[in-house]
Amino acid sequence: MASKANRTGKIAIIGCGGYQVALYDKDPGQIQKGLVAIQTKLQQYEADGCLRGDLSASDQFQLIQSYETLAECVQDAIYVQECVTEDLALKKSVFEEADRHVTHDVVMASSTANIFPTVLAENLQHKSRVIVAHPLNPPYFVPLIELVPSKWTDVSAMERARSLFQNLGQAPIVLKKEIRGFVICRIQHAVTAECFKLLRDDVIEAGDLDQVMPQGLGMRYAFIGQLETNYLNANGIKDFCERYSKDIYTLQESFGPPIALEGELIDKVQEQMEKAIPLDKLEERRKWRDDRLSALARLKIQLE
């Protein structure tokens, strides 16, 4: 996917900002399926009153064009987003081909959740323009996107990417350097690991465990982060640490080694989850999730 230079600001996201969007896939059939899905979603969002941007669904869709070659797709683009599967060799081949056809001031980003941009950029001419731009799904309703530089990334590339996503109404966060899992996955997987440990140790059932976020912690996390939560729960961070640092340290000591997500534990969790949400109801539940996220996004805008 590439954003062309003319601004009339990722697929529906960039389209809603008024930027021309160029799509390419080696399988033309995938492009056609994608265009149909995009048009359907835009029309649905417009009907539901949650379409982003100032343009109509029809006008936004008109900004999206497919191309038969990657060279045509990225020509004169100001921003290129690679969204192939988490296959290092495949990602590197896409970057290497795009690198031969982009302009010197382009930003080339990967949606990867765990591959360092330094690894992707090492053989490229435009390595100073390569970053990771890792979104959360569905990005239309979950605006956070983490931007990660390689060891060669120029500051101007990070600034351009951050400005672009801010203009689109996303919420970019900028990492200072590469770290395994970046930030989103480090926090998310830490929570996941602890959840599975609690289930392994028969502390709680899956249904009750899955109430902790939506009925508890997640209520405040929808509006404030962990550090501000701590800050407000005491008279500042220093006071919070004076009160709770020993308890937090002692609790960390009980976390134990990493847990392998395999074997009987996974069968047990799968069984409990299927009782709540049968596999043939997953698509229905995903729509329910997206509808709630859409409503929450609109509420947050109203409250600001």
Automatic annotation (TrEMBL):
<dbReference type="GO" id="GO:0050104">
    <property type="term" value="F:L-gulonate 3-dehydrogenase activity"/>
</dbReference>
<feature type="domain" description="3-hydroxyacyl-CoA dehydrogenase C-terminal">
    <location>
        <begin position="181"/>
        <end position="230"/>
    </location>
</feature>
<feature type="domain" description="3-hydroxyacyl-CoA dehydrogenase NAD binding">
    <location>
        <begin position="17"/>
        <end position="177"/>
    </location>
</feature>
<keyword id="KW-0597">Phosphoprotein</keyword>
<feature type="site" description="Important for catalytic activity">
    <location>
        <position position="134"/>
    </location>
</feature>
<dbReference type="InterPro" id="IPR013328">
    <property type="entry name" value="6PGD_dom2"/>
</dbReference>
<dbReference type="InterPro" id="IPR022694">
    <property type="entry name" value="3-OHacyl-CoA_DH"/>
</dbReference>
<keyword id="KW-0520">NAD</keyword>
<dbReference type="InterPro" id="IPR036291">
    <property type="entry name" value="NAD(P)-bd_dom_sf"/>
</dbReference>
<keyword id="KW-0560">Oxidoreductase</keyword>
<comment type="similarity">
    <text>Belongs to the 3-hydroxyacyl-CoA dehydrogenase family.</text>
</comment>
<dbReference type="InterPro" id="IPR008927">
    <property type="entry name" value="6-PGluconate_DH-like_C_sf"/>
</dbReference>
<dbReference type="InterPro" id="IPR006176">
    <property type="entry name" value="3-OHacyl-CoA_DH_NAD-bd"/>
</dbReference>
<comment type="subunit">
    <text>Homodimer.</text>
</comment>
<dbReference type="GO" id="GO:0005737">
    <property type="term" value="C:cytoplasm"/>
</dbReference>
<keyword id="KW-0963">Cytoplasm</keyword>
<dbReference type="InterPro" id="IPR006108">
    <property type="entry name" value="3HC_DH_C"/>
</dbReference>
<dbReference type="Pfam" id="PF00725">
    <property type="entry name" value="3HCDH"/>
</dbReference>
<protein>
    <recommendedName>
        <fullName>L-gulonate 3-dehydrogenase</fullName>
        <ecNumber>1.1.1.45</ecNumber>
    </recommendedName>
</protein>
<dbReference type="Pfam" id="PF02737">
    <property type="entry name" value="3HCDH_N"/>
</dbReference>
